[in-house]
Backbone:
């Protein structure tokens, strides 16, 4: 509850400071200070100190799972602001408003992490989506940015329509929006209304997390959006949609698992296949990362398929490892002059520290041991193994992870083993240290995942 | 009237919306079709809300509040749809300023 109210207030505060403060450095500092405050209040709530006590009639519940996820999301956003806030200046003139929109998105993330009613789920998804449409199109003179934002807007509202129809059908069948009451059946068989509603909600959520065959908007939107905002969209927002997805299907449709499990398995395999195979053929690193985010979504879908304690723990670890690593790579990518693979030629000689940290992030995404990405993938596969006789799915996932090594290592190969003469890039000392901190966190998660996951229980 | 009529009407409206989104090429018309989908949902929610109210009334609960949450949801959908319209039209206008067209067939720069 702390985070929900304070993030909305901070959004309004940033809008006003855009009028009062003319210096960009001051605005940036206000935003970072606000982010630190938000993170601290959320950690305080985990320790039991709640500043605002509001009766939500059971429509939201701030349990350990929700609070731990929001803490991960806020910490990632803080690191994202520290690394990339300076680069938002280049996007356009509305510097303060970008921060305001990011705080509003965080408010939506708090809703999607803690909903117990389909109404809150809908509001959360929309509060995340609408600011994102604006951020995608914030580079107003750039046609690619315009196109990406229009595409994202049309497809996003289309999938919201599907979600609402699903919710309406479920309401017709059950007469309630509370997720816990939806599958408490008195009759033996679920009605056709509720199954149809569930399928519509499944399709719409697959749209939001860019799972195949609903992924087609992702590469275009991620490629067209300003790179600073792609970084935010591909990491924290995507993780929030996944948390909403697993919470919804755990609470509302857990008892109907036999009806959707096969469908989720098909979506998972399709996502892994399309994401990984298409990423191999990309020439631009930004577009490769867009496809890689589809491939990683395939791995996160495994947690939905398995739906047990390990899956939920694993999903939290996965969101942390994936967000941190991808934010790091994007932060370096923003600084590059050329987004193609050739742009990274000879990068190790020019910027040894940046190249080393980027290598760690790429290794984590590929799932090499001693990094967070490896343990996250391991948890997912373990959850699938425990959930029953699904060895084939594990084998497919491991095979796809092996393919992903190819395109991640292409960047490492370009940095270390190729000669290049791209013009040198300027980075500040603070940027370097934050990047080192990020790499240290990625490795720490890979060695001691219990540091994070213990928070779920104590 | 039986609830089936309302369900058929709103599903028909919803399907018209989906077909419109998939086949039309003008961004404004696609947007109108999306609004049609949302309004089909509103109609369905209100119909179901009355249905649940009547069921509770017939079950003997005179002071029932069953079904009010469905109508509340409709207000939230209206508000969110209005917010979406304001952002969406701004995006379409921004597009029009740059390429003097709102045809989505122009949206193919990102493919290559």
Residues:
């Amino acid at each position: 509850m702390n985070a929900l109210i304070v993030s909305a207030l901070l959004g309004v505060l940033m809008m006003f400071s855009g009028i009062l403060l003319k210096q960009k450095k001051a605005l940036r500092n206000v935003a970072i200070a606000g982010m630190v405050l938000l993170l601290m209040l959320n950690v305080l709530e985990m320790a039991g100190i709640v500043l605002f006590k509001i009766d939500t009639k059971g429509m939201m519940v701030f349990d350990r799972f929700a609070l731990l996820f929001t803490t991960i999301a806020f910490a990632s956003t803080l690191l994202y602001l520290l690394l990339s806030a300076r680069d938002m200046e280049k996007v356009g003139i509305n510097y303060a408003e970008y921060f305001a929109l990011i705080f509003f998105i965080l408010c939506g993330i708090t809703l999607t992490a803690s909903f117990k009613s389909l109404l809150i789920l809908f509001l959360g998804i929309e509060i995340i989506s609408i600011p994102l449409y604006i951020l995608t199109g914030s580079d107003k003179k750039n046609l690619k940015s315009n196109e990406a934002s229009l595409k994202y807007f049309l497809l996003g509202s289309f999938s919201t329509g599907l979600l609402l129809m699903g919710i309406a059908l479920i309401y017709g069948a059950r007469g309630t929006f509370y997720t816990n009451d939806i599958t408490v059946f008195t009759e033996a068989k679920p009605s056709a209304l509720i199954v149809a509603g569930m399928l519509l909600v499944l399709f719409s959520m697959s749209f939001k997390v860019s799972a195949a065959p609903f992924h087609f908007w992702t590469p275009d939107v991620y490629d067209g959006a300003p790179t600073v905002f792609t970084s935010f969209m591909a990491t924290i927002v995507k993780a929030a949609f996944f948390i909403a997805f697993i919470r919804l299907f755990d609470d509302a449709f857990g008892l109907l698992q036999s009806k959707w499990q096969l469908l989720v398995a098909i979506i998972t395999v399709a996502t892994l296949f399309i994401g990984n195979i298409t990423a191999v053929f990309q020439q631009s690193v930004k577009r490769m990362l867009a496809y890689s985010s589809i491939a990683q979504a395939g791995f996160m879908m495994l947690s939905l398929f398995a739906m047990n304690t390990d899956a939920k723990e694993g999903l939290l670890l996965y969101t942390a490892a994936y967000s941190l690593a991808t934010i790091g790579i994007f932060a370096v990518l923003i600084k590059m002059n050329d987004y193609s693979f050739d742009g990274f030629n000879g990068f190790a000689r020019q910027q040894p520290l940046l190249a080393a940290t980027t290598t760690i992030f790429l290794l984590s995404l590929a799932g090499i041991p001693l990094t967070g990405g490896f343990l996250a993938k391991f948890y997912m596969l373990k959850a699938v193994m425990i959930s029953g006789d699904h060895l084939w799915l594990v084998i497919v996932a491991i095979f796809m992870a092996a393919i992903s090594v190819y395109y991640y290592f292409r960047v490492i190969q370009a940095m270390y083993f190729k000669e290049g003469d791209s013009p040198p890039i300027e980075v500040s000392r603070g940027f370097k240290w934050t990047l080192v901190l990020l790499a240290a966190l990625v490795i720490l998660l890979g060695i001691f995942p219990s540091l994070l996951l213990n928070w779920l229980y104590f | 009237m039986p609830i089936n009529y309302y369900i058929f009407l709103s599903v028909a409206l919803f399907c018209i919306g989906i077909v419109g989104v998939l086949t039309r090429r003008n961004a404004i018309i696609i947007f109108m079709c999306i609004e049609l989908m949302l309004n089909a949902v509103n109609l369905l929610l209100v119909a179901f809300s009355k249905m649940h109210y009547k069921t509770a009334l017939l079950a003997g609960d005179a002071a029932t509040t069953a079904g009010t949450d469905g109508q509340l949801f409709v207000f939230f959908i209206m508000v969110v749809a209005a917010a979406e319209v304001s952002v969406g039209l701004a995006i379409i206008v921004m597009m029009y300023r740059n390429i003097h067209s709102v045809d989505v067939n122009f949206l193919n720069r990102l493919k290559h």
In short: Residues 27-58 of chain B form the longest helix (32 residues). Chain B touches chain A through 46 residues (CB under 8 Å). The mean pLDDT of chain B is 90.
